[in-house]
Amino acid sequence: MVQQELDDEFMGFTSQPCKYGIFATIGDLVSHCKTLGELLEKVVHFYGLITDALQMELRVEGHTTELSFNLTEPELDQGHFLTEYLMVIWHRFPSWYIAEAIRLRETHFIHPMPQHHDELRVMFPGNLSFNQARNSLFFDTKYLEKPLVRSGRELELFIANHPTDIMTIPGEDNSLEAQIERTILHLSNDQLLFPKAGDLATEMGMSSLTLYRRLQQEGTSYQKIKDNIRREVAIDKLVKEGLSVDEVSAVIGFAEPRSFTRAFKHWTGLSPRNYCNYHKVQ
Length: 282
What we know:
The chain is built from 14 helices and five strands. The chain has 282 residues and is α+β, with helices and mostly antiparallel strands. Strand 1 and strand 2 form a beta hairpin.
């Protein structure tokens, strides 16, 4: 294996090597954590102590968490292999530890769109953006409270098979919440359409009671899912497509823009205008 041969987990793509065995040490370090948030904070802190070649940062802004990865000498990372490799690891390993694929809202890369962008869409399900300020994974802040459910023995086996096992962990989320979101977005065209709960249950081949119980088990509800969809679509239309508040309000199903503005501020902590201005300068 290249990492072992070079004694460098960064595989020669940085001027400062990262000795082989660091990931195993991190595994031992985070085995005492209780939640995903604790794990990520410890990982970011640890990398900051052992290397200057990589800068990791965890940012939490309301409902959205950003985990960023920036190499201090990105020109050494030919083909951006190390960057993409690290981003895969720190999406899949946390997903494995909570036994749930972390749904990525956005994935940002500092480099231009590469020829292998179709492969990146498989590796990082969700919206991809290139030529960005940071290499970042964006996901719902709720994941930070998820408990780490793997046993010490499972972790030992995982570390022993690293990094092979990481590449086989699915990135796609097959939770009921994800299935409902895909169903609703498939039914919607120019405007979001939310079927009644009973109709949705029928569409998904289950009873209303089963739908309700399964959503309860996942710690969510149909109303929360609808709000999440409205929020994500609103952000996408405002920031990426540059639609007006009136236009976005109509798309996500609000009777008047004022109601949408109140809801948006509740979701993000900012008005639509301030949110757009903030993200233009990032």
